[in-house]
Amino acid sequence: MWIFGKKEERIIELIKNHLDLVERTIESLRDYLNMYFSDGEKATVIYGRIQTLESDADRVRRKVETDMYSGAFLPNFRGDLLGLIESVDKIANKAEFVADLIELQHPVIPDELKDGILRQIDLSLETFRMLKRSIEYLFEDLQKAGEYVILTEKREHEEDEVERGNIKKLFELDIERCAKLEIKEIIRSIGDIADRAEDSSDRVEIIILKRRV
């Protein structure tokens, strides 16, 4: 267990708040994709929600950093925790980036790809949720935190398989090459959400190892 006082407890709550905001950003991207595939105009409302949530997550991240530099936590863990929350914040950034790509370019997604793309975002969300649990357990139960690190990696691998299948199917379609490249960037960027979650889980694993020494 960590040894911490009220200052550390406040920061832990901020970290959990940040995790919630990042999760809601990815959930909103999933909602956005579902709506875009059925009614592109209505999806714009959800796009605004994504922007707001990402901005809120960024604000909380900055608050964590400011409070952390006031002396919370031991110095040897402070840097690791700061690196972790910055890494997690990049996941929300990527979710917003995917929404930007679609909202600004309005690509025509072939029906053959829609289910696969929705499966991708579902798995990316599941990957993040495993990461979220690993970080929450980091302050409570190292064994559980490690178990969720493994689950994060497993979900990312599942997403990666779906991503490759989507790209293979995309280039088998009889559509313009420029459209294929546009859609490929969207597919890859959705995959980056899961990739960044796995990158963050690597940071969790390092913190676990340091705490066990």
Description:
The protein has 213 residues and is mainly α. The chain is built from 6 helices and no strands. The radius of gyration is 18 Å and the shape is elongated. The model has no long low-confidence stretch (mean pLDDT 93).
| Shape designation | elongated
Number of helices: 6
Structural class: mainly alpha
Number of strands: 0
Rounded radius of gyration (Å): 18 Å
- Which percent bin holds the helix content? over 70%
Q: Distance between termini?
A: 13 Å
Instruction: Please mark out the parts with pLDDT under 50 across 5 or more consecutive residues, or reply none.
Output: none
Strand content: under 5%
The ordered string of helix (H) and strand (E) elements is: HHHHHH
Mean pLDDT: 93
Main sheet specs: none
Any key phrases for this structure?
213 residues; mainly alpha; 6 helices
